[in-house]
Every structure is written in structure tokens, then in C-alpha cells.
């Protein structure tokens, strides 16, 4: 082969081109396009359109007993808020929900710990989940009434059933899907015991854990409202479900819609504010989810 003599290559120097007279490649987006890129604005517009459609159809139907308008529903809500009735009913439901949800999470943590630490624990969780996860919580309500009587303990019992299996199953699945490479990296840097679980397993499995928390919350909220619709009153104070049931019995359809609207608003608030904030500060910041 003939060797190439690099020293014989001629030297040259090129002057930089002047791009100052050319139009800029980047251009600022118009105001409406920047605003439309906001998820909150798009969802707000959708909600406003739905509200306008509701108002228009109710006025066209002209039958408040069947479908009150949004204006009539808001008037009924304001009336119940001013009397304090709707606030008391909402606080009663939220109090029971927090009790049941917290107890469900605690029991799910125990089952998941057993499943992660031993093979018999894994078999126990898999068997119980297969048995009870498909069982609707409301189907356990008659049994809860026999065991705990009429009141908060029965509601807490069915909420625990709603939360427990969804959270435990998702958490255990999240732990099992942590890559072995990541586990070995954690052991190589000296993580073990509680630090291994807290600093490696939980962050790595957090997308699945968070999904379980959201599913458990949704199951718990709908189970609570359904259970309150069945018997509702705990002591002399019922929750939102009982509020809706009472209004239905008195043919106050606007109040029924007002109670349903409160249920929806609370669901949207928890989903869009609390869980969205947790996502933004954890899985989104860690680059695990877009």
C-alpha cells in the first residue's frame, strides 16, 4: 500500500459567513398558541363547553324534575352551603374516607412486605388478591352490617377492601419489575435493609405504587358514596351519599345533581391537584414518566 503524506495537504482558511441579514429561524409563538399549549386551559375550556351543553339541553327540555339546569343546580348548592348542610355532609364523607384509605394503605404495606420478604408471603398475597380483588366491595356491605352494625366501622371495612388489593398488587408488581442491574448497583454502593428498600426499591417502583394509590383512591371514593346510598347515616349524620338519597326521596332533583357535582369536584381535585403534584415532584422529576 502507498502511504499518504498528510503533510502535503494544502492549508486553507475560510472566513465565517455573515448571517446577520437573514431572517431568524426561530419565531415566537402567538399568544393563543402558547395559551392552548396549557393543559389546564384546555381542560377548563372543555368543562365550560360541557356546562354550556348541560344548561342549553336542560332549558330545551324544560323539566326540572327530570333534568334541572346548571343554574338551578348551583342555586341548590349555594342554598345547602349557606345552611351548612352540604359542608357537614361532605366533611362526614371525607372523614370516613380518610380513615378507610389510611387503614387500607397500612394493611397493604404489611401484605407487600410479607410478599417481598418471603415466598410464602408472595403466595399468600397472590391467593388473597385472586380471591378478593374481583369481589365488589359493596357486596360485602351486608356482612359488614352484621359484624359491625350500622355506622362508620362498616363503611371503613368496605373501603379497606376497596383499597387494599389494588394498592398491594400494584406495589408488589412494581417491586418485582425493578431491574436486576439496578438492584446489583444498589448493593455495590452498600445499600441494604431499610436503606435498600427506601432509597432504591421504592423510588424504582414508584410509578406502579402511584398507580395503585390512584386506583385505590378511586375505588374507595365510589365505594363510600355507594355504601352511603344504601344506608348512609352514621349516628345522626350522613355523608354525601345519604344527602343524595334524601334529596331523591324528596324529589329535589337539583339537590341530587348538586350532591353529584360535589362528588365530581372532589374527585377532580384529588386527581388533578394532589396526585398531579406528587407526580410532578417524583416520577416526572426523576425522568420515569412524561
TrEMBL record:
What are the entry keywords? Answer: Cell membrane, Membrane, Transmembrane, Transmembrane helix, Transport
GO biological process, alphabetically ordered? transmembrane transport
Q: Which residues form a coiled coil?
A: none
* Region annotation (Disordered) ranges: 1-23
Which source organism does the UniProt entry give? Answer: Elioraea tepida
UniProt cross-references to Pfam families, sorted A to Z: BPD_transp_1 (PF00528)
The record's comment on protein family reads: Belongs to the binding-protein-dependent transport system permease family.
Q: What is its main location?
A: membrane
InterPro entries per record: MetI-like
Please give the superkingdom of this protein's source.
Answer: Bacteria
Location of the ABC transmembrane type-1 domain: 86-274
* Transmembrane domains' residue ranges: 96-117, 196-220, 256-278
What GO cellular component entries does it have?
A: plasma membrane
UniProt protein name: ABC transporter permease
Q: In what ranges is there compositional bias, type Basic and acidic residues?
A: 8-17
Where is it localised? Answer: Cell membrane
Lipid bilayer topology: Multi-pass membrane protein
DNA damage: present as a keyword of the record?
no
